[in-house]
Design a protein that fits this description.
Layout lengths: L21 H11 L3 E5 L2 E5 L11 E4 L18 E9 L8 E11 L14 E12 L2 E5 L1 H6 L9 H11 L1 H7 L11 E10 L2 E8 L3 E7 L10 H14 L9
Parallel strand pairs: 3-6
Antiparallel strand pairs: 1-2, 1-4, 4-5, 5-6, 6-7, 8-9, 9-10
Length: 250
């Protein structure tokens, strides 16, 4: 199994991909998490001291392995159940800042190594499923699908990159609006960067009532954070070539 100790580079994306898959979203949330809620047999506690490194570096997920000749339904279920909950919050001050919720369900195979454990300690978990909840709905991810996915290379840097864009270069957010089709109407009061990943940038267009999100895909998915500058510049260059102008506040 590949999950612990993944290489840094993601697998090549298909040419048609313009947004992360559900499994990629889950891997990226786990890779960038700074806090989580852990529930073991229903007892919950908050972990607020994650260092932003991939949670799967300390949590090893294993497939269910029925004993020889026994179906999974008759295996003993007295192993402690573990539930890990993560909330993906937009780093910019958009409305409805919760972008996604991720839940990982399983059963403990070894004692849980909490944040007080020695460096290098890890927990083995028999994986049940991961659940991704977004504004688009709920998706259930099996272990094989999760194992084949890669955390986004921008995930650890996304918050800093988006806040830098908004705080130091708000005029570029307004410029990117030229790429939005159809062009934003006068009902849009504010546009803010919502998300950034290897496939592109997402803007949230806020109206007096409600909002809509618009993805601006990069010319091609990037493979590491060093390529992000060139891809963002390509979007800005394309925006400058567009004729219509926007006067919305960034």
């Amino acid at each position: 199994m590949r999950l612990p100790g993944d290489p840094a580079a993601p697998a090549p994306a298909t040419p048609a991909a313009t947004a992360p898959t559900a499994a990629e979203r889950v891997r990226s949330v786990l890779a960038a998490a700074h806090s989580m809620t852990v529930a073991i047999d229903g007892v919950r506690h908050e972990v607020r001291h994650l260092d932003g490194s991939d949670v799967l570096g300390r949590l090893h997920l294993h497939p269910a392995a029925p004993a020889a000749g026994q179906p999974a339904s008759v295996l003993p279920d007295d192993r402690p159940a573990i539930r890990l909950e993560f909330t993906d919050i937009a780093p910019t001050p958009v409305r409805d800042r919760v972008r996604a919720r991720v839940t990982v369900l399983g059963r403990l195979l070894t004692p849980y190594a909490d944040e007080r454990s020695a460096p290098g300690d890890s927990t083995c978990v028999e994986y049940c499923q991961a659940i991704l909840e977004t504004a688009d709905g709920t998706t259930y991810i099996g272990l094989e699908e999760l194992d084949l996915a890669w955390p986004d290379p921008l995930a650890p840097y996304e918050a800093g990159m988006l806040t830098h864009l908004l705080d130091d270069h708000p005029e570029l957010v307004t410029l990117l609006l030229r790429l939005v089709q159809p062009a934003p109407s006068s009902a849009v009061l504010r546009a803010l960067p919502l998300a950034l990943d290897r496939y592109g940038i997402t803007l949230r267009l806020e109206e007096r009532r409600g909002h809509r999100d618009v993805r601006l895909p990069f010319p091609s998915p990037l493979d590491d954070v060093e390529q992000s500058g060139a891809q963002i510049q390509a979007l800005l260059s394309a925006a400058r070539r567009r004729s219509h102008r926007n006067t919305l506040p960034a």
